[in-house]
Each structure stands twice: as structure tokens, then as C-alpha cells.
Design brief:
heterodimer; A: mainly beta; four-stranded antiparallel β-sheet; 12 strands; globular; B: mainly beta; 11 strands
Amino acid sequence: AQKVTQAQTEISVVEKEDVTLDCVYETRDTTYYLFWYKQPPSGELVFLIRRNSFDEQNEISGRYSWNFQKSTSSFNFTITASQVVDSAVYFCALSERWRIIFGKGTRLHILP
Amino acid sequence: EAGVTQFPSHSVIEKGQTVTLRCDPISGHDNLYWYRRVMGKEIKFLLHFVKESKQDESGMPNNRFLAERTGGTYSTLKVQPAELEDSGVYFCASSLSGISGELFFGEGSRLTVL
């Protein structure tokens, strides 16, 4: 069965430090999507990225970057030069047919 | 453009009572999903509508939960009778093209059953 593991329950870093959130997944599908969502204190889930399993190129969007490695079934997320506004819970997720399987989330605290 | 809206944002009820949660998806989005997160656990899929039809309701925990989407617009999720373990945050999401497109989530409805 599909599974997403985010081993880091909670991380605290000082502002301006870089931080990487780990995500490991299990799937039997040959075609699938991987996602990252951010849940700020306001509660909504904010879409950050969707990656197709055929596209292993790393992606950078501003201070955010994602490292997809199929060989290790990982889809890690790095925030460079973190800011206090990055404090949130971050969820990694995996597609299973028409639904999304979420990891338990990593709570990130950026300390001023 | 309005996002996915959910109502109420927070509901506190007694065990055995009934609660109805409402979700208004983004206009034009045929795909509507319900997810929930109980305390300390993963966000879990409940069901998926395509227009007014239930595509997949395999995630519904039991028959105390009933979801409807009349006319393919807004959706309701009724819990009757509510139990303590139903407490959590219920998220609604909508998309234009299923998971190959972007899922837009609402802010969630927090349910507390006492």
C-alpha cells in the first residue's frame, strides 16, 4: 500500500538558516504524483508543488527547492535562508489513484 | 476568485448530536474531496465527488457519515450521531482535473465532540 513517511516530527532553526524536510514514500504504482503542502497557523493547506514520477529534475522556486530521487524514494524539501513566516506544518503527499496520501507532517519553527 | 470555503470553521457538539459541515468548492471545479485529520494523525481521505457522483467513498469511516453534493455544486458532510473519535479537522478540496491538477484546500472545519 502507498505510504508517506516524514520522520521529522518537529524542527526548530534560527532565522536565515537553511532547513531540509525529509520525505520518503512507498508505492507500487509506476506513475504517481508527489506533493508538498504547507499549513500555516491559519489552518488552510497551501499547495507548494506537484511532481510527476517521470520528472526527476530538481526544482527551485525562490527560497524553496525540492530534491526528487526515485532511487531512494525520497522527495525532500529545502528552505534556504529561512524566515519566521516559514513557520508552519509541512506535509508531503503521494497520489494513489484519484486521492492523496499524506504524511504526518513536520512542524517547522523558525526562531527570530 | 473565491477559494474553497468551509462552514462552520469550528463546531463543538455533544456526543450523540448531529453536525453538518458544508463545503463550497471553487466555481467550475467538478472534483470535490473530503479529508480529515484527527489529532496527531495523518490527513486521511474520506471521499471524492465528480460533479454530483461519488467517485470513491472508501475512506468514509462508517455509516454515521453521510456526504452529499446535490447539483454538483456545494457539498455537505453530516455526522450522525457524533462520537468522541470524530473530533478533528475536516478539510474540503476541489480541483478542475483531479490530482493531475492542483487541489485547492479550504481552511478546514474543526469538529470537537464532547
